[in-house]
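Entry: Carboxylic ester hydrolase
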Amino acid sequence: MVVHGECHFIKQTIRKPPVPIGQYPDDIVINATFYGPRCLQGSDGKEDCLLLNVFTPELPNGTDPNIPVMFWIHGGSFTSGETLIYSPFALLDHRVVLVVIQYRLGPQGWLYLGTDDLPGNAGLYDMIEALRWVQKHIRAFGGDPNSVTIFGESAGGASVGLLMLCEPARGLFHRVIGHSGSAMVPWATDEDPIPKTIRIAEIAGCPIDNEIAMVQCLKTMDQHALSKARNRQENEDRLNDKIGFGGASAVVQRSGGIYEPLITAHPSELLASGNYINDVPVMFGANKHEGSFVLSVVWEDNLVPLNRTNDYEFLKTGIVPVLISMINGRDATEEEIQAAYEYFLPNVELGYFDKMMPGLVDMTGVLFIKQGALDTVRLHHKFNQDSFLYSFNYEGRYSLGPFLIGDIPEIPY
């Protein structure tokens, strides 16, 4: 399809479930004149969603295509998102081939039991298979398979950081850009995923006292119902002062099932040791008010339903340790709590949300996004000096802020 001089190749299907990877036919003809379905998310989407869109400014004229490739991984907390919302036009002005992928979300993409049937990280396997597709086919669209930049935002930013830790992804990309996410953010990996998987199964109505029966139930039940069960578990978590990423994060794998395990140790351990794909330039960064989104989620899913928005004592002494614990996935230490008050809330009249809000936005932004980006760049710099950190501070006329923040006018965006 040609639009404004650019050629768009839509819905390049990676594979059809349940055909094993590597066994799909190469000669299949795809109708690429319309967008395909998004992956399962709540009551919407389909299982047959592993597709990618290719946008190119020109088709190859010779035998050696040389247009750099940019490979986009969308965000959405590993539970939502799709290719359809990303327009290629701004990037195509700069002569790149843009590939926009989809990957399995929520429990279909990330559920983990440490077994061959539920080894976790299915979403990462999808991303790697899409990168293999690029290596095999991108020349047909004018792209250079030896010049692939992976980039993503939020969960996509965490994903590009995680792909650096995956040995099967070695050689499939050559540069990394992470926006508002990295492998080092606390929500990128779940250090205790099995209890959450069991709770999701219980909510979904599966037996939980027999692992084989539970796995069979999870695999054969209506997958929209399974997605809704994970969403219910998320809401439960947030009402219990947790962040709610259960069943929707990468994990350190004890087994990869029939596939090679991808994440073999915690990201901090792999990055510190150099035992990862460290020969690629990287750039990670964040927006100025990253914490505004996190704080709005906590407001809506925790403070409002628990009647904490005007609770003077809670806002004075409770909200800081709760936020630290939610984001880090463990109890806050006294040292962390004291440091947060001293650094983010000095000379602030405590107990009033509107007075504390600017400091809370800064604090949650650092804990949720910015510290992970800084740690990633610092660790990578030991092995590769092409390591860059950025901060996006421009506040333009158009913004998703009002949509994300909703009815909390005090929070900046």
